[in-house]
Amino acid sequence: MNRDHGNGSARNHEALSGEVVRPKSMRALAKELGVTHTELWRWKLMAEIPEAEFERLMDEMQERGQPLTTRALADYARRRRGDWIPDDIEHCPHCGEPIRRRG
Question: Which terminus in the chain has less CB density within 10 A, N or C?
């Protein structure tokens, strides 16, 4: 087995058998898990929130009577990392292009 990581594409991985294994796309993984791509994308964002902060946020949302939705938590994660986009323009989660303008 060749252990030289300098050769080949960065997107390909060599399995123990020597075969090249490509990582699954988010869409393929979502399909395999039986969820939508959007759900998987939101879960990934929510996983970026540290556990203590996540618990505090959930408690605050419950106290204010806000619904505990994956969208609300994913939106919080996006604001936290600084890539929040205002609600009046919806952007594609893949390329960032505007896909719908509200209002």
Answer: C
The Cα–Cα gap between 25 and 37 comes to 10
In contact, 15 and 3? CB cutoff 8 Å: no
Say if CB 49 and CB 73 are below 8 A apart: yes
**What are the structural domain ranges in the chain?**
34-101
Burial of 74 (0-12, 13-18, 19+ CB in 10 A): buried
The span from the CA of 57 to the CA of 98, in Å, is 29
Contact indicator for 88, 101 with CB cutoff of 8 Å: yes
- Those residues whose C-beta lies under 8 Å from the C-beta of residue 70, and which sit 6 or more positions away, are 39, 42, 43, 46
Among 21-25, 67-71, 92-96, which stretch is predicted with the lowest mean pLDDT? 21-25
Report the pLDDT value the prediction gives residue 59, as an integer from 0 to 100.
Answer: 93
